[in-house]
Design the sequence.
């Protein structure tokens, strides 16, 4: 299910985003990379876009960790019941 932070495959292909970077936050990466190219990758430019992208990456990591923790707990509960 695509969200507001996920870009379509055609958008990603048009923006030439490498396959390894096509994740849940890819919709935020396209404008970040455009800003970086426009500002010649100056580190003090594009801070709002970068922080938004990094927050999305962090939130995605936390979501995946919680899901994995839940799966491990369910497996441990199932093993304890046997």
Sequence:
């Amino acid at each position: 299910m695509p969200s507001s932070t996920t870009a379509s495959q055609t958008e990603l292909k048009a923006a030439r985003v490498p396959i390894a970077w096509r994740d849940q936050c890819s919709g935020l990466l396209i404008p970040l990379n455009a800003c970086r190219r426009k500002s010649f990758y100056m580190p003090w430019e594009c801070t709002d876009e970068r922080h938004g992208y990094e927050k999305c990456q962090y939130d995605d990591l936390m979501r995946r960790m919680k899901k994995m923790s839940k799966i491990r707990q369910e497996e441990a509960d199932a093993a304890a019941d046997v």
In short: The radius of gyration is 17 Å. The chain has one domain: 9-81.
